[in-house]
Every structure is written in structure tokens, then in C-alpha cells.
């Protein structure tokens, strides 16, 4: 339950050791670069843009080659392959691939060129298919399309509107040029777009015939062939088959490089690491013989850097505490249970410098409320077991994914506990199955009470748990104020609110309104009632007079105090917000019971049992999915809005160390424990 103490470390070393020191710092992954000697006289930065772009280009080349292999020789992946994480490789294997990087880059270029050949061949096939499509209307023509006729007779090929008939063509000629008599028209084919004609006429009258036809929409074909269309189509099909054979041959050549997949990944990550190193190198202030490196490290990592760098190289290490106005990156340090919800906190915002880390306290409430919302022991067992199996089967999954899966495992365990307390096992499936198929009702009694039978009781407990949650948040605010030495603020903003709220709660409990909701009457001794009124009055007067203490104007001060007291409505709204614990808990149980009742409607025969199983699986799968999502969303909401709203600001930035940020593999080597 803490934020690791950060320090600034500066390393001044000889240029000859620059490469080795940078690579060592990168492999350790414990230092975030933040240079402070940028404006020092005698130091200048090195222009590494071209080198970095060259390495990035080669890394992208490797990625493209891998994409080509994945297209034609895909790796076999399981449904959960996304959880596997990056493969761990030995340093020796990585070094071997790096030694052969030029040959591997050549393979990458070859794969990309082969893929380009396939793309060009496919484009050629598409072009040929379009030509075949354009030939289809002329396929019954038994002369080449560029045939112009004999010495005295001319052939005109063209298209006219789809509704064109032989009679309309002759009529068109007769109207536009009645002197033409020696002419023959043949409709080769027609479709919904056009009619395809072959017109024969005297060569001397060809121009006049064409002009007359154009008045009716006649147009020459855009493409003509030097062979009969049927023969040309056969030639085009042969060309397509030839290109398909070439594509198959090229694809087979690409598949033959499948064994190079691992080398491509290793070399791609090598160039990616080199690009990262040169990006940092471009930020380092350097003189003629030395360079300076500075950045943030966790205080516990300083000894490891001193041992790895200070004892091995001729350099000077300077470690200093951060300045008062310096805002360092944030590293959270929590136990195995609480660290699982760090992702939830990070999605809201990390604590800023000096702010309290609420992860541990939040983790308890998070798991507590999640289980209460889902509240079915069978659902919880499914979640917990599934998450446990995934954690064991995929130990190398990403850090963030590992935390999330572990968090859901703990939430599943909490759900089991609440399910046992409320008597929820796939809703009331034990009751329904025993009654439907065995003729007698067997009920597993809840260890505490059944919410469906006593919802108001659950409502009271939901708001009580919410009040505890909010009071803890207010208490954390008080702790932070005392820690900062703001005793007056602690008294005015925390103690007075506690007095006011506790007084009002004690006054509410004996009332008829609360008795009607809780189904029980609470009676306090007169002394407790007087104490409640006294706390409420003292708290209200204190808030009225002290909430606006920053203002010297008495009227404005009182007005601000009155406004602060009005914020009691905000507290009421926050407490009522915890009724979602009741709503989601009931929703899970009600929907589960409805699913069971639907399944039992088919009777107790064999068919009824089969249909019951089908309805059971489908219904409970959907119910689990919907309410799992609902529990996750609303549990986050209770933390972000109600709990954090009482004390937490956030706004810290995450620690982003200079490290080997690879894409495909992790390299097995000595790292900081």
C-alpha cells in the first residue's frame, strides 16, 4: 500500500562505454530517462534521426514479411493464444539470429517481393476476367471483332439501347437516310443494358449508315479483338490458368520460408530495440569524450545500478533526492492480492506526488462489492476456476492481463462466499431439478438469508456497507490532512462531517421511516438520543461557521458554510447509490430462477431433460455474461465516483522505463529482481 520512493540518478561516463552502458540500462529496465544537462556549455546532442528511422524501417520490414508468412503459412493458434504472452528465448539464440541479420533481412525482402508478384498476378487475372466479361455479349460472333469486311462490304459492330429490335434498327435507317437499301443487321445478343449488333452494308455507304445509327444511340465497342471472341476467350482463360499456376508456385515458395518465422521475429525485435536505443541516444548531452545520462529510478533499484554500472565502468554516479517541485513518475508497490486491482486504479489515474495510494483499501471493497453484486456460488466457482486455470496455463501473459485475470479470480472467490451466504447455486436450480425430475423439493438453505425473500433487508445492508465505504474514504482524507500538518483542515473538513453525519444517522435509526424499511424498531436510551442531537447540532454549526474559513467576509463565510451543509444531499445520493448492490444481486438471482423455470416447462421425460440442459446452458451463460459485465462496471463506478470522490485526485504519470520493449519475444537474461 505504497508508492515507491523515486530518486534521480545521473551517470557521467566515457564515450567509449556509451553503447555498453546504454544496452545494460535498457536490459535492466529500471530507469526512466529525463535529461537535465541539456543546456550545459560544452555538451551537445547527437543527431540520431536517420539511424533510428533506418532501424525502424527494418523492423517494419520484418513485420511485413511475418504478415506475408501469416497469410500463406499461418501459425496454428489456440482460442486463448492471445493470453500466451511473448515467447522467452535464450540469449544465445537471439545472438545467433542477430549475427545472421543481413541474410534474414534479405529473406524478408524476398518474401515481400514474392507477395508483390502474387498481387500483380492477381491484378492481371482481374484484368483478364474483365476482358472476358466484355467479350461475353459477342461470344457467338464467328469473325474477329476488328474484321472490317470484304472489298465491297463493310461490317460495323456496336451497341444500341437494350430495347432495340431489328425492326427499330431498319426504321432508324429509313428515317435518317432513306437512300440506303443494301444493308443487313444481325443482333448478336442483348441484355438489360444494351443490344449488341453486327451491321453489314456497302463500304461506300458505311459512314452514312453509321451516322444514321448513331442518331439512335449506336456506339462502337470500347475493346475489339483480332480473333473471334470465342477463340479470344479461350486464350484469356489459358492466360488466367497460367497466372494461377504461377501464383501457386510463388505461394509454395513463400511457404518454404515458414521455418524462418522465428528468425524474422528475433531480428525484428533486435532492430526495434536498436531504434529505441538510438532514440534515447539522441537525447543524451555529449561532449568530445564523455556523455551524461540522467533519469528517475526507484530508490530500491539504485544499488543494482551502482553494481551493474558503477563497478564495471569508469564513470561517476550521482544519486539525489527529488526537488520539492519535481513531479516524478509513479510506481505502485502492493501485495499479491491488492496489486491485482492496480489496473483499475490506473484507469482512473495514479496518485500524484505525496498522495495516498488507495489500492490496498480499494482492493478489499472492490472484491467485496463485486461478489455481493454477482452473488451466485456456482457462477463464482466458474469464474474462479477458469481464471486459476488460465493463470497456471499461461504464466507468460502480459503483466496487465495477469493482474486482471487474478483480480477476477479473487472476485470469483468472493462471489462463491456471497453465493453461499445467500443460497444461490445457479439460482434455485437444486429446487427446480429435484421438484421437476425427482418429485420432491430439495433446498439448500442460505447461510445468512435469501435476498429474493427479504429484499429490504439486503437494501439496508447495502446502504450500511456503502456508508462504511464512504466513511473510510473520508477517514483517508483526514489521514492525508494530518500527514501534511493541516490540523485545522482535518478538524473542519473531516471531524465536523463525521459528527454531523453520525448524529443524523443516530437520529434516523429510531424513526418510523427506518422501522418500516428495516422491518424492525430500534429504540435508543435518552442519553444516546441526546448525544445524536448534540453531534448533529455541533457538526452543523461547525460546518456553517468553518467551511468558508478562507474568506474574511462574515456573510460570504456563512453562505459558504450553508452551501457546504447543503452537500448532505450529496452524501444521501452517494449512500443511495449503493442500492445497486441490491439491484444487481437480485437481477442475478431472478434471471437465473427464470431460466430454471423455463427449462422445467418441458416436463421430466428424456426430451424434457435434454431441453432443460439446453435451456440451462444457454440461459445461464447469457446471465453470467450480462451480470459479470454489470458487476464489473458498477463496482468500478462505486470506487471512482463515491469512494474516490471523498479524498482522491489522481493525476500521477506512470513510470516508463528505458527497456527492451520487444514485440515478439522476451530475451532470457539477468534482470533486476
From TrEMBL:
The chain crosses the membrane at residues 364-391, 407-427, 458-476, 488-510, 522-546, 581-599, 605-629. Keywords: Coiled coil, Ion transport, Membrane, Transmembrane, Transmembrane helix, Transport. It is a multi-pass membrane protein. GO terms for cellular component: proton-transporting V-type ATPase, V0 domain; vacuolar proton-transporting V-type ATPase complex. One of its GO terms (biological process) is vacuolar acidification. It comes from Clostridium scindens (strain JCM 10418 / VPI 12708). This is V-type ATP synthase subunit I. The keyword Transport applies. InterPro entries: V-ATPase_116kDa_su (IPR002490). GO terms for molecular function: ATPase binding; proton-transporting ATPase activity, rotational mechanism. Belongs to the V-ATPase 116 kDa subunit family. Residues 233-267 form a coiled coil. It is found in: Membrane.
